[in-house]
Amino acid sequence: MALLDPNAKEALLLQARSAIARAIGAPSTLVSDRIPSPQSLIPIDLRAGAFVTLRIKGHLRGCIGYPEADLPLVVVVERCAVSAALSDPRFPPLSEAEWGEVDLELSVLGPIERVVDLNEIVVGRHGLVVEFGRRRGVLLPQVAVEWKWDAVEFAAQTCIKAGLPRDASQKGAKLFKFEAEVFGEKIS
Fold first, then answer.
1. Which of 111, 123, 118, 126 lies closest to 67 in space, CA to CA?
2. CA-CA distance, 37 to 10, in Å (whole number)?
3. How far is CA 57 from CA 72, 186, 187, in A?
4. How far, in Å, CA of 157 to CA of 163, rounded?
5. Is 163 in a helix, a strand, or coil?
6. Residues 146, 121: Cα–Cα separation, whole Å
7. Which has the closest alpha carbon to 102: 32, 19, 173, 180?
8. Which CA distances in Å does 141 have to 26, 27, 147, 154?
9. Which of 22, 148, 15, 139 is nearest to 77 (CA)?
């Protein structure tokens, strides 16, 4: 899956970093003459879901996403970046003191498709969404690789993330797959 060229990827990373810097009151690393604005590199009508992951020295420090493809990608990335820094319930808000240590990773989502059989899931290629009533869980493709899960365990862990029994996808919960274009700054 390739939605973005290298310049567009860099522009989105810089946009995310700039949005976080503004939100926490830190100096921005966005240098206006370094690269054109994301709006000039990414068609304004490009709508895609995305996740923004923050890491410090390789350890997760925040991750928030918006899987729907109903807003412009630039808007999604900026909102998710700020939310990952300030609103991930697993972590306190990012401090200005931590700012210099943060590495960003973006996952731009492709179309979300229904999974009928777990054999359709290719670990490392697909991310998963599970839905049952008002409960929803999403795991990115790289999570299954990081934890060395097979497709069955990946589906089970996505159900657990949604607060459902691990076998919910086999008992009425809807399971979906998606591909993601994952890129980022060098992770420490």
1. 111
2. 10
3. 31, 10, 7
4. 10
5. coil
6. 16
7. 19
8. 31, 32, 11, 9
9. 15
| Mean pLDDT over the full length of the chain | 91
Q: Do 158 and 141 form a contact (C-beta atoms < 8 A)?
A: no
- For residue 176, which amino acid is it? F
Q: How far apart are CA 175 and CA 179, in angstroms?
A: 14
Alpha-carbon distances of 55 from 13, 39, 68, 77, 187, rounded to whole Å:
14, 26, 24, 16, 7
Write phi, then psi, for 99 (nearest 5 degrees).
-50, -45
Structural domains in the chain? 6-109 (3.30.700.20), 113-179 (3.30.1490.150)
Residue that has been written with the tokens 């999570």 in this structure: 143
Ranges of beta strands (E only) in the chain are 50-56, 59-66, 102-109, 113-114, 126-132, 135-139, 174-184
3-state DSSP call for residue 74? helix
Average pLDDT of 53-62? 96
Residue 112 near residue 141, CB atoms below 8 Å: no
Cα 81 to Cα 62, 77, 150, 172: the distances in Å are: 9, 6, 29, 33
Query: Tens digits of per-residue pLDDT, 124-171?
Result: 999 999 999 999 999 999 999 999 999 999 999 999 999 999 999 999
